[in-house]
Design brief:
By secondary structure, the protein is of the alpha/beta class. The protein is about 40% helix and about 15% strand. The chain contains nine helices and eleven strands. It has helices spanning about 30-50, 70-80, 120-135, 150-160, 175-185, 195, 200-210, 230-235, 250-265, and strands at about 1-5, 20, 90-95, 105, 105-110, 115-120, 135-140, 165, 190, 215-220, 240-245. The chain has an eight-stranded mixed β-sheet. The radius of gyration is 18 Å and the shape is globular. The two termini are about 25 Å apart.
């Protein structure tokens, strides 16, 4: 659940595009949604108390002018605790820096926060520091879409600890995903049905991930509608992860509501598990 926005999704001082919470400790989807929604509203109160704006970005996450990129993680951990949950056990953090958006001339320019230019290895070192400080379990697009060598080193350094998701680097294209699997460029793929174009091609992309033992995340797009097919598709594909925005805006809520309906329809047959736990 995307609860705090930056980058090109918000006109603020945060370089990274999405800060999300993953309710991995919840026993059911309904409870997971409650975990996320309560954390989202706790975050709103905390931001207001700190004097930050509580308007939302185009995927429903808050978009305050924070003092640094790190403060985004600080306030999220604070919100998780304020909502009555345990950071790292009940709820973890997932990032989508969307690094292609700040990649310039072979460097990553963290200009919005004033942190300057960094190489691929320096970005990986930054993420390593964050992982040691915060309950981060997944990073999507931590490097730019054409930085294949950087991604390979990035995954070698961090992939044993967390999920490394490729989005812009693969664009749900089976040829790119197959290359990524051979090169171990990431260990997970973001799946966007309307990016590759057909349900058949999307399933082919997912099958590649399954055969490689990779995770896959069914994802919305920034320009969404209230069509909820993605929720049914996510359950049918059995990957255990869906990315569909925040706990506000009707085009995001529509998917969560459909997932609630599916869980109720399945009854005892419904299984809600943490896909990041192997074995």
């Amino acid at each position: 659940m995307n609860i705090l926005n930056g980058g090109k999704h918000a006109d603020n001082s945060v370089d990274f595009q999405e800060f999300m919470v993953m309710p991995v400790g919840a026993p059911t989807f309904a409870e997971a949604l409650r975990y996320g929604a309560e954390t989202f509203h706790a975050l709103k109160k905390i931001l207001a108390q700190k004097g930050y704006a509580t308007s939302v970005g185009d995927e429903g996450g808050f978009a305050p002018n924070l003092k640094s990129n790190e403060e985004a993680c600080d306030v999220i951990v604070e919100a998780i605790t304020a909502a009555g949950y345990r950071p790292g056990q009940d709820i973890t953090i997932a990032l989508d820096p969307a690094a292609s958006s700040f990649y310039e001339e072979s460097h990553y320019n963290l200009s919005k926060s004033g942190q300057g230019r960094k190489t691929s290895s320096e970005m990986t070192a930054l993420y390593q520091q964050w992982i040691s400080r915060y309950p981060i379990v997944s990073i999507e697009d931590g490097l730019a879409e054409n930085d294949w060598d950087g991604f390979k080193s990035h995954t070698a350094a961090l992939g044993g600890k967390i999920q490394i998701v490729g989005d812009d680097i693969y664009v749900t294209n089976t040829q790119f995903i197959a290359w990524g699997i051979r090169e171990i460029t990431t260990n997970a793929v973001l799946i966007k049905l309307n990016q590759i174009g057909t349900v058949t091609e999307t399933i082919e992309a997912i099958d590649l991930c399954r055969k490689a033992g990779w995770n896959y995340v069914i994802s919305h797009r920034s320009g969404e509608t209230e069509d909820a097919f993605m929720a049914d598709f996510a359950v049918a594909m059995g990957g255990g992860q869906i990315k569909t925005g925040s706990a506000c805006r009707s085009e995001r809520i529509a998917k969560y509501n459909r997932l609630l309906e599916i869980e109720k329809e399945l009854g005892r047959a419904a299984v809600f598990t943490d896909p990041l736990k192997k074995g």
